[in-house]
Amino acid sequence: MTSTGDDLLAAIWARPHDDLPRLAYADWLEERGDGSRAEFIRVQCELARLDATDPPEPGREIMAGWGCTQFPRVPDTPHRAGLAARADRLRKANAAAWKAGAPKPLAASPYHRGFLHPPLKLVTGPKLAGLPADLLAAAPLWEFALNTVPADRVLRARPPALARCWRLRAELTEGFARHLIDGAAPNLAALSFATPARDLATGTIGDLLASPYLPHLATINARYAGLPVGAVADALTRPGPPLRSVGLFGTHLTDADVTAVLDSARTAGLRELDLGQNREVTAAVWERLARSPRLATVRYLDLDNNPAVGDEVAVALAANPHAAGLRVLRLASTRVGDAGAIALAGSPHLDGLAALLLSEVKVRRDGRAAAALRKRFGDRIYLGN
Fold first, then answer.
1. How many beta carbons lie within 10 A of that of residue 118, not counting itself?
2. How much is the average pLDDT of 359-366?
3. Which of 64, 81, 149, 329 could form a disulfide with 76 if both were Cys (CB 3.0 to 4.6 A apart)?
4. How far is CA 339 from CA 13, 315, 345, in A?
5. Who's near 165: CB < 8 A, 6+ residues apart?
6. The overall pTM is greater than 0.85
């Protein structure tokens, strides 16, 4: 490969979130007669742009943080289906040539935006620090789940694997958070911590989301994490880049925290929102969320396990024209009853739902409301066993 090709690849690895170096490399490949690889890169970049606006599996960012591997899927538009089919044909026709020379552990890795993108890799802190350079160099971005927090001395050494990390699942200690805030993972875009956070200061989450060394961090999933009181409100009142996915299931939110989610400039383009099992939040705030124009961009909304979510919230959601973009709506284990169910079944705004979860609610499964839901949504409604 000429130095120009090497330079273009180096630019992709230096700016892995930017499509421009990838597209420039595609142009270079086409000029040299490799039209299939060039087209593959362009098609996958286009697919990624489409999926950023309308994810084909809404909630994937959040549910992947819990360890889920299966997700509700929205039917493809003809345009997306055509792109996906074309990318698949190109990949199958060129698989051997494109993966020639790739490290053996990446032989089965999928592609994303035209380049190898290894699936989530479970590692210990020492193993993360010891991943070989030639393995890391084979893909511009990686995903890691840490089953132990790296030692402080490891983090001070800035492990190359952490620098290449795009999605990270880990227990978030104050010390680990400070290393992330100070630049240990400059390519981090999605952070999930599904075990109780230890000794976090009130301002730590805000410092993470506002860090100039984390410019790509757009997904935060703090399921069942023991966040300090006021941490979410503090984080979302600070300036910073826009957030795409926010998961706060079981984090003891207050009315002020949910209000901050609704009012923050950083959540204006939110695609996924999980506020399940936050029992201290009052019905008035849930109703405000259900009426909010902020739902216009949301594709996945989880309000499961909130006792203050009842018929009034369901009626408000059903009447909200901004809810028309919802693809997955979770209201399981709430106090939604027949009145709320009938409103949802009759809503003119919920045609796009791919999944409506209403298990363990106050709807009689053999009653008129359940029948109305089944008639409207068919196999897209789940009322439980």
1. 21
2. 92
3. 81
4. 54, 8, 10
5. 141, 142, 143, 144, 185, 187, 188
6. yes
